[in-house]
Amino acid sequence: MAPRLPRPHRFDVYVAAGGLLGGVLLAWLGLGTRSRDYPLTLFDGPWPVLVPLCVTACCELARRTAPRAALLTGTAAICADQVTQGSLATVLMFTDLVYAAVLYGPPASARRIPWITGLLTVAATLVPFAVWRVPEALLIGVVTGIVAFGPAATGWIVRDHRDAAAAAGLRAEQTALLAEMDRVQAVTAERARTARDLHDLVAGHLSAIALHSTAALSIDEPGTSKEALTVIRENSVAGLAEMRRLIGILREAGGGEQEPTAAPTLAGLPALIDSARANGLGVDLEPETEGGGPAAAGPGKVPAPVELAAYRIVQESLTNALKHARPGRVTVALVRRDGVLDVRVTSPYGDRAGPSVPGSGAGLTGMRERAALLGGTFAAGPDGSLWTVHATLPLSPPHHLSPLSTPSPPSEGASE
User: Fold this and answer.
1) Is position 41 within any domain?
2) Who's near 196: CB < 8 A, 6+ residues apart?
3) Whether residues 18 and 164 fall in one domain
4) What are the tens digits of pLDDT across the range 189-230?
5) Which tens digit of pLDDT belongs to each residue from 145-156?
6) Do 276 and 151 share a structural domain?
7) Rounded Cα gap, residues 98 and 80, in angstroms
8) CATH of the domain at 345
């Protein structure tokens, strides 16, 4: 089965029909481009011009779909038109074929045609003048330039502008795509940060509520129940306050007028330890961290992002110890050495006899993310009879990292 020829564009059909009808009208009126006594005229009369006219009109139908073939055939037709009285319609359609071959043809043809027509124009100007030595001979080059080189140069200019516009459109699409990717990443990072902060702020209070409520239900002693309810109430109030603070921060990001809430620092570790002790957890803060230790003011002050990450890691470690650790002492140690802040929290490891709270793994994941954001390391796991959480945080974290942003989630989530 023979391949189907591409359908000509509607505008090309209009151009071909208009050129053909115009040429027929000129032939009927007897109007040609040359006189009857022109030396190259081999076919006298107005009607022989219709043959190259019809061929050129047919070439116009393929000016977009097959521009090179149309130009080659049209060149043969314009040459045949030279041995007749000539038709202005044939010449005009040929100039359009040159223009279309540059505009719609392959890039190689678009580059060559202006050079070829330019050389032909120069030759048509110099050769006749050298032979005949009359100024009128220069008109041959002028006509050749108007018919061939002019349309080719115009087509090249239009094609160059069209390619530039297409490249600009592509760059705009790529910029929009990158902007959308940045927006999605920013939204994802903000959601991860909010989830991490929500977990760090509330999980400890809710864990204490769950443990003490379980103890109050399992032990039928008024004193114990009252003590448990007191702890439950204190943690409920504290958790509600933390939730309100977080909601205030989120509203502030949306355009509220509230003053920003100060981020926790290592100077607040004693208060955090006291809160854990009030929840029934035995915690020892090693001497070198008492009174603020690494966070104390002075030339060696710990950067704020590192302080926040260390505080949250200790806070989450105490929450995990409250939920999962066996009875015993929990040790918190923060030591600054060799350009890093070393955070270590140990708690008794093993089967828990009393009530426990199930974990989801979000806590360890959040601690690992906080350390990774600052270019540090994090490890958590059993070490003999102890469960050890160990993080090293560089005191000079990368400047392009923010403690409020989030990296890509780890491929393997840890269990809390």
Assistant:
1) yes
2) 362, 366, 369, 370, 406
3) yes
4) 777 777 767 666 666 666 667 666 666 666 666 666 666 667
5) 999 999 999 999
6) no
7) 17
8) 3.30.565.10
